[in-house]
Amino acid sequence: MIKRTGMNGKHVLLAACIAAAGYVQAQQQPPVVVKANQLVSEVQPTMWGVFFEDINMGADGGIYAELIKNRSFEFLKPLMGWQVQQDFFDEGALQVLNRLEKNTPNPRFLRVTKKAAGGNLAVTNEGFRGMGIKKGLRYDFSLQYRQPAAGLSLSLELLNNEDKTIGTATVQTPATGEGWQKAAVSFTASDSASKGRLRITFTGSGSMDLDMISLFPADTWKGRPGGMRADMVQKLADMKPGFIRFPGGCIVEGFDLSQRYQWKKTIGALDERQLIINRWNFEFAHRAAPDYFQTFGLGFFEYFQLAEDIGAAPLPILNCGMACQFNTSELVPLDQLDPYIQDALDLIEFANGDVNTTWGKKRAAMGHPAPFNLTMMGVGNENYGPQYVERLQLFMKAIKAKYPDFKIVTSSGTDPDGKRFDYLNTELREMKADIIDEHYYRNPSWFLANAGRYDSYPRNGAKIFGGEYAGHSDKVVDGKRQNNWQAAVAEAAFMTGLERNAAVVHMASYAPLFAHADGWQWTPDLIWVNNLQSYGTPSYYVQQLYSLNKGTHVVPALWNGEAVKGQDSLYISAVVDQKSKEIIVKIVNASSRTQTRDVVVEGAAKLNKTVSLTTLGSETLWSINSFEQPEAVSPKTTNITLTGKNKLNYTAAPYSFAVLKLKM
């Protein structure tokens, strides 16, 4: 017998009926219907890509594997990064000299003079927030030197975090005379260090000039000497991005035009690439980085090579004759714009030209006679106003006249709405722009609310590039926005709308890409690194799952006959992959409750009963990945079984993103 307290039997019966009705209603929710035979639009191979900018020590100190900071003494403070050890008094023992009239790209060098054989004289380089050293790994040291006569000897010591020696070598410098020579030596580290340093000790007596002092690990990407950090490139390769946009971002514009990115100064021999200050050196007072410069060891040739390595289409962005409008708004007069336009035309020739052309020959001389197959280029980054439009028109006219099929990516400014955006959107469409680049850094609620943003965009005319976006979480920890699951699940929901509208959206990329744990200026970021490790954030895995499962054609995924873009906090999109013969359904549950739905596939032959299910999620929205727990939020793949003919009963966990792959 059931004891009733404060409720009579009639009320208990009524409550039971209501609960049962709710249960039945939950069980009888209309199914999600995927119409596999209705191909809405193609999904472009470039649909999901990556955006690289040299921010957060993304290049020097990041993906570019050079360990020596200020290797050619060209920083504003010529000995920044170097510490002098000297136990005798001679203020002329180390001098930085300038040969500007003879070598504009690389004018400075270090002159070492030791008058007597006795005494200690050494310089130690601190690296980029230290040097990551791996036990048992070979390190390749090199420098340029010049000496009137033999007398000075150079020895090397790798130092660990406690200044203990973990590697030694002697540098042979036998040549004498007025010409510059190169010396190199390789040695192996006996231990590991996260904050290592390199000491160069001078013994004997005499004078020697030094320049381009360099130290690289042997385990670069593809083992290329002077190449890139393999673990960071691997993170990109694992995403299989359709494109890579480079080199930025705001560094394209520069604080003023003198600091703009000039691609021609980033190719050729390393000592002929002219260093400039990175605008993120001083952009944020609270995250100032006075040692942040661009050596361009990672230049346009290396960017093209990287794109080729990871199977991504290259998307370079060029300055349009406008500096950053937030900082200086400096403009090139229209009648002086020709050199900027010529840079764009020459870049196409550098990437694609025959080896007999001027710039194709330069590419071939760098070791790549085959073309890079460049098909598109961005003109301007986040530029806006009529001053941008009139400059863009001149670029478009010149480029299209010579390369009619070449695609030009145009800027829609800094925000996804407002008068600035509306003006540009109208002007660019009237100009018949190929691709319009839209940026949105917003809180997670914006991404959830805008999953249908492109449903009403015109199907014809300009296509959309979601060039920079990230969910900026409202939860602030340690003084910065975190790459938490709250942001990532909102991004996943928004991306169902990008995918559903692949007829309009041809490209999209999260931004920024990399951040060094000890050298960041901006958060959140897709991939975090320190000197030895790297990990992908929850947002990284969202991007990866979309890129690895982009399919070839969009098909309808409907609930109650409508696209699923937030009803009951569910977001759903579907594609078919005609190559793998799969139907791929992406489901985001942005609510705090479990939700169960039938997924019914129409218009397909009998499906394989076994369904691949990959899930990404966390019980709490504040979950993050870290160096200690790099896969705390990461994909898990299992198999589930159809519950009927072409029907699957799927239960979505709270705050989850799932990819269902049904084999046809």
From TrEMBL:
Q: Does the keyword Signal apply?
A: yes
Gene3D superfamilies assigned to the protein according to its UniProt record, in alphabetical order: Galactose-binding domain-like (2.60.120.260), Glycosidases (3.20.20.80), Golgi alpha-mannosidase II (2.60.40.1180)
Catalytic activity of the protein? Hydrolysis of terminal non-reducing alpha-L-arabinofuranoside residues in alpha-L-arabinosides
Is Membrane among the key words of this record? no
- Which terms does the record give in the GO molecular function aspect? alpha-L-arabinofuranosidase activity
Its Enzyme Commission number?
3.2.1.55
Keywords, sorted A to Z:
Glycoprotein, Hydrolase, Signal
Which domain of life does the protein's organism represent?
A: Bacteria
Signal peptide positions on this chain? 1-26
Gene Ontology BP terms: L-arabinose metabolic process
> Which stretches make up the Alpha-L-arabinofuranosidase C-terminal domain?
467-656
**UniProt xrefs under InterPro entries:** Alpha-L-AF_C (IPR010720), ASD1_cat (IPR055235), GH (IPR017853), Glyco_hydro_b (IPR013780), Glycosyl_Hydrolase_51 (IPR051563)
* Protein family (similarity comment): Belongs to the glycosyl hydrolase 51 family.
Q: Which PANTHER family match?
A: ALPHA-L-ARABINOFURANOSIDASE 1 (PTHR31776)
Please identify the protein, giving its name as recorded. Answer: non-reducing end alpha-L-arabinofuranosidase
Q: Which organism is it from?
A: Filimonas zeae
